[in-house]
Amino acid sequence: MMWLETAVAPVNTFKNQAMYSDLQMGFFRKKTSAHESRADQRDPLKPAYARFSNLPHPYRRPGRKEISVELYHQKLGQLQQFPTRMLEEAATILSALNMMQLRPEQRLEISNMIMVQIYPALAIWYQKYQSLESSLPESKERHLTLTVSVKVLEQLSISYMRYFRELFTPVPRRFKKLSAKLSAAGFRLMEIFMLLQRIRALRYQKLTRNEWQNCNQLLFSLLLHNAVDERYKLHGSVGIRSERSTRDSRKDFLNSSVRKLYLSIQLFGLMDVSTWPTRMFHLPDAYLDYLDGEGLKMLTDDGHELNPGFLYTDMYQNMALRFERPEMEHKPALQVDISVLYHALVKDHEAIAKMNFISSFYTSKLSRPLQRMHEQERVPILDMMLLALQPRKRQQRRHAVFSDDVLKVYFGKSEVMLLLTDLSQHDIQKVMRSREFVDTLAQQSSAFSEDDNLHLRSIWRIVNFSTGGMLLRTRETDFSNPVQLGQLMAFVPEGNICKPTLGVVVRLQRYDDGFVEVALRCLSNYAEAAFLFDQSQKNTDKGRAIIIYQDMNDQWYLVVNSAYNFVPGMPFWLIRAKGNRVPVRLGETLMAKKEFLIFEMRSPAIH
Asked: 202 CB contacts (<8 Å, ≥6 apart)?
């Protein structure tokens, strides 16, 4: 926690005051004559603003009667009762228009009309799927609706980028004449980037590198003319905070700006929210809203080493904020101060710990975003957010795997418990024969496949591994075995079936080619099934089936059902697979997930 204690102090220095002042007065603007401004445009060393990547080149002019805003409006209106079909039609219209040479005003008129028409459909699907827990495999309906939603937003972003690029000028005098149009179009484009990020996250996907770079291009182009704080109304609440500040009224709840949307996108990406439960997607925005815009602050970059609590980005960066400067730096660049947000999270974490210690809990002492959350979810989500706001370096070396070694993977607490129970039997050869069919299926992510090619692609393959985790890759099919974030699992290399390793699914990422990657955090060096008895019931048959494991540091832990009302400090009798009884006491909670809890296990008799 100490690294950010010093982050607040530099803000009060003269240098940082100047950085904040520069950003308020105008971004990288110099007073130049008209002649000098024209010369700047011809200087190859000057940054090229509004140069969006992967923009298709319009190659033809439309026919006289080919473009009709009324016709497009009528087509989309007739499909209002069929949201998915309407999104498909909108994507088709935009895809064709993006190949045409249109007048900027005509392109903007069509884009605005389509955005208004499709937004209710986007809201329907987002609200529906955000309230449902996502997993592998993805249903056909979910796949179709979310992929077409992404497609139409991609085409809309191209249309708005084309309009913005055609009108934008780095010359202040010329920009001033077009500032109202460019500021409004820039806001709509940033809103589309935000929607793309949120809807992709519902499918365990992230913004592409091109989208990150285009987002930065847009921001820095508007920052050049200090045009990032004009307030406009969002089309709706999709993807933004779900709670209103007490200072907001219903009338201005949807008012935002390019700066606020950009910081929201950056925080969402920095915290890797696509790996969170979907019902918590709003939490980063809820904190920014709770802090009344002070949670993150943009500063002009001074070119010096980054202070603790300050992150870096530039106009050409194709990823979220960085904790270190890249080897190849570009200008213009900026820094983002995250210290206020970090300290707010620390304050909540300490308040929960204090109230738990004195066994007196008052939700009113927590910040507003946490008050409506389930009690057992508060500490884990705070831990994730605090970890995401700290610079991290890989502790273990990652090793790439290029062979096709067979790996058996078992997902879910029940499957893991069954595996460990079978392995505890004395006649291991008999167990292997009885499990031959199940263990063969465990090599595949899908129990069935439509053809041999798909069958081969659904084999679990190791991408890379380290002592702390593993990255697996497989092909997703309609018959893929269910996999969820936070799920307990076990994996067994071929030839070592008697020594399974426990792990937890910490990240899922879906790719457009049909493959998915599953990141695992390794828990155990050794694991076994056992029974846990209350001290007064050790001679009865009322034990609870649990898993115990020993980690890489020879520490022991218990994995129990989340429905058990266990708390640290409770004493029990443990009966291990070999029949020996051991007195144990629960230590601190290591992990709390939907289907299981992990406690430290303290006992002088276990080894």
From this structure: 126, 129, 130, 134, 146, 278
Six token digits for residue 391? 């610079």
- Low-confidence residues in the chain, pLDDT < 70: 1-46, 241-253, 394-396, 402-403, 449-456, 494-497, 538-540, 607
The total of other beta-carbon atoms located within 10 Å of residue 447's CB is 12
Residue ranges of domains in the chain: 66-167, 190-392, 400-522, 526-602
Which residues are CB-neighbours of 578 under 8 A, at least 6 positions away? none
Question: With contact defined as beta carbons under 8 Å apart, do 176 and 226 qualify?
Answer: no
Instruction: Give pLDDT tens digits for 493-523.
Output: 766 667 899 999 999 999 888 899 999 999 9
Structure tokens that stand for 560 in this block: 């129990």
Q: Sort 358 into a burial class: Cβ within 10 Å, 0-12 / 13-18 / 19+.
A: exposed
The CATH number of domain 400-522, selected from 3.30.420, 3.40.1130, 2.40.10, 1.10.287? 2.40.10
pTM, entire model: 0.85
CB 73 within 8 A of CB 131: no
User: In 3D, which of 8, 102, 606, 75 has the Cα closest to residue 307?
Assistant: 8
490 vs 416: CA distance, rounded Å: 6
Max Cα distance, the chain (Å) = 94
Residues paired with 382 in a beta bridge: none
